[in-house]
Design goal:
By secondary structure, this protein is mainly α. It is built from 4 helices and no strands. Helices cover about 85% and strands about 0% of the residues. The N and C termini lie far apart (about 85 Å). About 0% of the residues are buried.
Length: about 110
């Protein structure tokens, strides 16, 4: 029996055991991707070619490239605004903590 068949049988047995005892030890959506790509080098090439073709299409289509850039800029400004808001909240909390400390330290 080849290593490939042993691995498949072991994975199937693990899935059956997980289904029986209600646990889930299998990795997430892309957890087995590394193993799959090592076992299927031609598919790895095809995935790379598809990603490259998508990148070429997006970069060569001016209208789509503009939409992607606008979306990226909107995302960046949203994140920057979120971080600014977070900094303000931290400063407010720090000021409140200092005010409480000043009240507890003041024996008046």
């Amino acid at each position: 029996m080849s290593k490939k068949n042993k691995g498949k049988k072991a994975r199937k047995a693990a899935r059956r055991a997980n289904a029986v005892n209600g646990t889930n030890t299998t990795p997430g959506l892309f957890g087995n991707l590394g193993t799959w790509l090592r076992e299927h080098p031609s598919e790895q090439f095809l995935i790379g070619a598809a990603v490259g073709a998508a990148a070429v299409y997006v970069l060569s289509n001016e209208e789509l490239r503009g939409k992607v850039l606008k979306g990226g800029i909107a995302l960046y400004s949203s994140l920057a605004g979120g971080f600014a808001e977070l900094r303000e909240q931290v400063a407010d909390l720090k000021a409140e903590a200092e005010a409480e400390k000043a009240l507890t330290d003041d024996p008046a």
